[in-house]
Amino acid sequence: MQLVRGLHNLSPLPQGCVATIGNFDGVHLGHQAILARLHERAIELRVPSCVVIFEPQPREYFAPEQAPVRLTRLREKLELLSRAGVDRVVCLAFNRRLRELSARAFIDQVLIQGLGIKHLEVGDDFRFGCDRAGDFDFLVDAGRINGFTVEAATTVELDGMRISSTRIREALASGDLSLANRMLGRPYTLSGRVLHGQKLARQLGWPTANVQLKRRLPPMKGVYLVNVDIHGQIRGGVANIGLRPTVKGDGRPHLEVHLLEYAGDLYGQHLTVVFHRKLRDEQRFASLEALKAAIDADVAAARAYWLGQPLDEI
Ligand SMILES: Cc1cc2nc3c(=O)[nH]c(=O)nc-3n(C[C@H](O)[C@H](O)[C@H](O)COP(=O)(O)O)c2cc1C
Ligand SMILES: Nc1ncnc2c1ncn2[C@@H]1O[C@H](COP(=O)(O)OP(=O)(O)OP(=O)(O)O)[C@@H](O)[C@H]1O
């Protein structure tokens, strides 16, 4: 998959392309349906498929403080788009210049001159251009004049409601991991490099890998059953995302993972933590002994789960 960063680096492929546009945060089942349709159209028209995304995402540009937390980092999003068979990702800087482009200029400069578009696949609620003035009907008219087709993707719903990145964030924040995972079509993951922690977990009896979240805020908190792929070996474990109120943290959320029956050194490695079930909320315990007892129970639950025992029997 080819990555093009910025409008100035974009030139149309000789044969043109089929394309879609959006944030694609999380690459959920709704996104996956659009990408599958895009792939089909690319094969029919014998042209590459292209996804246009924005960095930062428009809401992060307009109101950085109120912008929702990301489900996927750019690196994770690109990996998921590549797995969905996308040939080219065009990552446009969402800045003043882009936000001031009229809908007409967006079509001319990005879709026609930039991409040489033959077919566009978008949701029927898609809006674009300065002040979100461009809509689906506007695109259809422009396509008729400029020789490209536009198709509205079928809305993907779960339990009668449209799947969206927003809904997944809400499910994760409210502790409904299983709903979030069903909308994603896969278990939620968070990834990052393993850093050195305060080495207290070792004293508690359960060494943990501290996964760096950088400035990224995780979309959920609590204690989870997880697994991690270490050099091709899937290892079960238990993870905590939170502020560690019992030991007075640094005020920032941390992701810590204890892997079952594992004694290797993970410092510096990049880990992808896969979230399967929520066990409980993070709590402030009155003593380290009480915290240790709670983690002992979490680890016992993880052991039972990864040995295939149903959780309600634990
Ligand atoms: C499975 C698991 C559950 C945890 N639950 C809590 C919790 O409920 N409350 C809390 O204050 N800390 C909790 N922690 C975080 C511990 O306080 C943390 O591991 C300890 O502070 C050690 O940090 P360190 O690795 O930086 O040394 C949990 C950690 C793990 C691995
Ligand atoms: N459930 C869905 N079914 C079909 N298409 C969808 C669905 N959700 C999003 N799309 C389409 O995928 C493209 C990218 O969507 P985008 O990531 O911008 O929206 P979203 O998932 O609804 O996010 P948000 O919740 O932040 O609005 C758009 O064309 C959008 O209309």
UniProtKB/TrEMBL annotation:
Tell me, what does this protein do in biology?
Catalyzes the phosphorylation of riboflavin to FMN followed by the adenylation of FMN to FAD.
Q: What is this protein called?
A: Riboflavin biosynthesis protein
Alphabetically, the GO molecular function entries are: ATP binding; FMN adenylyltransferase activity; riboflavin kinase activity
Matching NCBIfam families, A to Z? PRK05627.1-2 (NF004159), PRK05627.1-3 (NF004160), PRK05627.1-5 (NF004162), PRK05627.1-6 (NF004163), ribF (TIGR00083)
Q: Name one GO biological process term.
A: FMN biosynthetic process
* Annotated transmembrane regions: none
Name the Pfam families on file: FAD_syn, Flavokinase
Q: Which gene encodes it?
A: ribF
Spell out the reaction equation it catalyses: FMN + ATP + H(+) = FAD + diphosphate; riboflavin + ATP = FMN + ADP + H(+)
The residues covered by the Riboflavin kinase domain are: 183-307
Task: Write down the species.
Answer: Pseudomonas luteola
